[in-house]
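// run 5 | inverse folding | seed 20
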């Protein structure tokens, strides 16, 4: 790959927002054939069933406002570049329902994350969506894994009560943007689908 053009910083780039608006998680075996070109994924299809079992797909994970973000840090060694990606978010309260979701994350076999940022642009897209854990080099083997879940009830009445979740993985390139459509289910806990635009 070679440098093909420069990069211009415009006014909209200087007026920016941080943080994540939405996180969707899906296991490695619940994704069909991905279509990607020029740093953009146009089709990231979720499967309606896996191994004959219905109910497969992605799921929305809500979090405390202002607690979710991802980082992508590159390092180069022996002529190869690896991008270490980390996604973190805070789930409020310690409950049996929360712990059940955490146990599912902790024992999953590879996770992809679709995240929507608050960053916007002067033109479409109004916000940016990125896929973490899939790239055009490693494809499905660039998946994220459960790295940690730091849970605490605190000791004082006004202490934090919840779990900071971290998912991490190694990718061969920086996260790719997603240009498709996200369709949420009828309820907050229903499966979500990703469809080509």
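// decoded
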């Amino acid at each position: 790959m070679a440098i093909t053009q420069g990069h211009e910083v415009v006014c909209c780039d200087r007026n920016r927002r941080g943080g994540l608006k939405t996180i969707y998680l899906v296991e490695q075996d619940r994704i069909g054939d991905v279509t990607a070109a020029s740093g953009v994924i146009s089709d990231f299809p979720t499967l309606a069933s896996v191994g004959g079992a219905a109910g497969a797909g992605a799921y929305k994970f809500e979090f405390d406002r202002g607690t979710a973000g991802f980082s992508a840090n590159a390092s180069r060694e022996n002529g190869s570049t690896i991008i270490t990606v980390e996604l973190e978010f805070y789930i409020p309260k310690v409950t049996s329902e929360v712990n059940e979701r955490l146990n599912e994350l902790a024992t999953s076999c590879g996770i992809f994350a679709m995240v929507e940022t608050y960053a916007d642009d002067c033109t479409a897209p109004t916000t940016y969506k990125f896929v973490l854990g899939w790239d055009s080099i490693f494809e499905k083997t660039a998946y994220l894994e459960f790295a940690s879940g730091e849970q605490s009830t605190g000791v004082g009445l006004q202490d934090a009560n919840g779990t900071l979740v971290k998912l991490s993985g190694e990718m061969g390139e920086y996260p790719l943007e997603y240009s498709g459509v996200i369709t949420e289910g009828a309820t907050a806990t229903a499966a979500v689908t990703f469809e080509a635009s």
